[in-house]
Amino acid sequence: MSLSLKCPICGQSLEVLPSKSAKSGKDFIQLKCPVDARHIRAFIHDRDFVESVISGHAAIQATSGEKVN
Ligand SMILES: [Zn+2]
Predict the structure, then answer these.
(1) What is the DSSP string of 5-69?
(2) What is the radius of gyration, based on Cα positions, of the chain?
(3) Is residue 43 one of the residues assigned to a domain?
(4) pLDDT for the residue 13
(5) Which residues span the domain enclosing 37?
(6) Domain count, the chain
(7) How far is the CA of 14 from the centre of ligand 1 (A)?
(8) What is the DSSP-derived secondary structure letter of residue 3?
(9) What residues pack around ion ligand 1 (CB closer than 5 A)?
């Protein structure tokens, strides 16, 4: 599975960050512009979709040590 979502401001490919809510413990996906998060930042909470994307992006999850707020 490949996502090729581009930032509408600068045209960079958006980062796909599998995340977990500290409050509810639910998984969600954060999409944000790698250049400037003010360009675009989006959150996807649909459970089935999130799980499919997270399983397809295990490599991203493993290499991203960045803490997501
Ligand atoms: Zn941008």
Answers:
(1) -B-TTT-PBPEEEEEE-TTT--EEEEEE-SS-TTT-EEEE--HHHHHHHHHHTHHHHHH------
(2) 12
(3) yes
(4) 92
(5) 15-63
(6) 1
(7) 8
(8) -
(9) 7, 9-10, 33, 35, 39
Q: How far is the CA of 42 from the centre of ligand 1 (A)?
A: 12
pLDDT of residue 66: 54
Residue 68 belongs to a domain: no
pTM: 0.61
Lookup: tokens for 10: 């600068």
User: Is 37 part of a structural domain of the chain?
Assistant: yes
Q: What is the pLDDT of residues 6-63, one digit of tens each?
A: 999 999 999 988 889 898 898 888 999 999 999 999 998 888 888 887 787 654 544 4
Residue 69 lies in a domain: no
